Input
Amino acid sequence: MRISVAAALACVGVVSVSLAAESTAAVLRHNLHIPRQPLDVALKDLAQQTGLQIVRFSDAVKGDALVGPLNGNYSAEQALKELLAPTGLTYRPLNDRAYIVVTAQELTQKSGAVTSTQDNLSLAEGVAAATQALRLAQAEQRGAISAQSTASTPAGAAASSNEVAALEEIIVTAQKIEERLRDIPMSITAITGRDLQALGATQFVDFANTVPSLNFTSSGVGQTQVNLRGITSGYNVSPTVGIYVDDVPYGSSTAFVASAQLALDVGLFDMSRVEILRGPQGTLYGASTMGGLVKYVTNAPDTTAYGGSVRANVSSTEDGGVGYDASSAVNIPLADDKAALRMSGFYMHNGGYIDNLTLHDKDVDQAELYGGRVDFLFAPTDRLSVRVTAFAQDIDRDGSIAADFNRTTGVAIDGELDQRRQMPETFEQSFRLASATVKYSFDFATFTSISSYQTVRSDAITDFSALYVPAFGGPSVFSAIGLARNADVDKFTQEVRLSASGNVVDWLVGGFYTNEDSEQFQQLQPRDPSGTPSPVDLLTLTIPSKYEEYAAFGNLTFHLTDKLDVTGGVRYAHNEQQQSQVGSGRLVNPVPTRRASDSVPTYLANIRYRVTDNFMPYLRFATGYRPGGPNAEINDLEGRPLAAPTFDDDKLTSYEAGVKFGSADRRFNADVSLYHVDWDDMQITAIRGGLGLIANAAKAQSEGVELTLTALPVRELTLMGTFGYTNAELAADAPDLGGVKGESLPDTPEFTAALSAEYRFDVSNHEAFAGGTIRYVDDRNANFNQSVGMPQYELPDYTAVDLRTGLTVGSTRFQLFCKNVTNERGQLSAITGTSLAGGPANVSILQPRTYGLGVDVSF
Output
């Protein structure tokens, strides 16, 4: 009798709580990102992202079926219905914070009238079992939440003794759908916003050396060339690595505005993560992604919660100036959680550390980087979302980070932080981007449209006095000669795609269009012996160009079994270009408009096998290309052309094998990849008749190994190691480059490595941390041994050590840091053009030892 009464009361209680839960669930909505994965893992992700407890009621509920993906705003019950639909399972609320997943038969049995003591006893036992399961789920969820803070926030709280720590599960959009990082069959690194915060990273060079196979050359913020897996000929004709801001490609795809050397150096504030995709991405991302892709993913507006942050840092560089930065972001929900506005702004001042002895200017490389973003999201229904973003960024730099070194001995001519320039080498850049992303979920697929318009204005002056003053008669004729360059790009892009996931097939089809109007202006600016501008016109050149591209692409993934997937993809692109050369002066002749067109297919094939949820080997085949185009018109002394009127596209084929695995308790992860790349018809800058032009003149290959290890050996300690081995070399003689078969490609170290550790502990009931990062870059060559235009210079290896410690008090985080603790004079890259006239090599130097303090406040 007592059992019957207790059971009846339990039934009433369950029904009452169920009604309350249903009411609450109908109101609360969550922005969910759950990739296609086994049901058990999807339910854990749902619990973590909603803060609810979700458990299986009995062993009859199998958890290995693949479900998802689920992306967008959902109530908990809507999300459960979507995830459980393919499995034939259902659910019932236990209380306002908990759901139980059951079979339909169990739901009928437990929802029916109480007819017997045995039935009542079964229900009571079931509720008790579920309650115990919920306790375990709560502990697991607390551990997951703690791990998320631990893994992504190095200053995160030390977990209490009853919490289970685990590494963070990172969701990325590398394949234009949201997936877990460990499910993607390619070599990829994702650096979260909290990781950037821990590194004290405010610009590209602050994190680049921690990523396997990622290399760069730089003259300072804004003037950077990015290379992946050794896919570079030195001074690249056009980009070999694509740069994206969210889903928008940055900059020009052509060879006419020095776009390869102007890779976007975005201020790393209010950033969700940076994704680095290694290997060609030609199928989904198109031209100029032969080596891979760097994708900056910004924080999206949140329609459910008000919040924001304020950040400030101040630092002092040894033998340099004082640097500081400040940023702020705020998120404001609007229209009953159907819209949100996110606004952010930042300002950064680099104090500089290079002195120009000729002009008596200290810290000439000091720079300012500032900008902001306005981001509006409107999601009136579960199916529709519209995101409109406006982003602006300006860079203003007084000089380069290059010091003068003897090209043959590698010894500094003055000091290791000194240069001699007759003219200030200023750099200014203005970047403006407006984009609109529309997503609509049909019953059968998701439609996405991305429209964007951007402008990039870059102005630079380079001192070529050491090269040109002797050539034009010496100091008695000109005291200095500088090259002023202006590169303007106006670019419109439109992409549409349709994608769907199923139990048997996932598919994605899309189209892409871009229209670019670009113009490069170059002028040699001589000064007479008194130092005033000379009226002599040595070279004044304007190069207007147009680029238009249409492309169609598609990917198809077959789930041959619950564990085995096979993917094939193709992209077909057609571009049309035109370029003119309008100029005057002793060194240039006008050239009429030249035109070229190109049609290029790219391919993708991969296979992945999920041995378990924590072990996945894969194979990947992919191709990439850069567009060809019209060439400059240059003749020899007898009037014969030195180059063909057009140059061809160059192509790349990549073969990759890898494995991603981790421990079942998610405290250890490892990614290993091996690759071989064949690069045909390399586009290069050839020096003929003393002038530069574009040619297809070489073949190359690159092969290597990449390894990333992450571990949480104890709750308080996080370890990470990244290692890269790259063997990139010419596969045939290249006379225009001054290289021979087997010679290493420039700016490509054979070995790179980075090790980081972070330990969390408690100080007077406050969360504290201490950590550090060691980065090693092997020696490498800046050019080719017999190069005519750029003589060889050997860059030595270097090791840099960074340390940090801090304390979190409530919502405020304090961090003390020291970058380059040993004050290493690491040589990042070198330009040797002036060495032709006996001038120095201009060697870019790693920032010296820098101390600083940072404060972050969240609200």
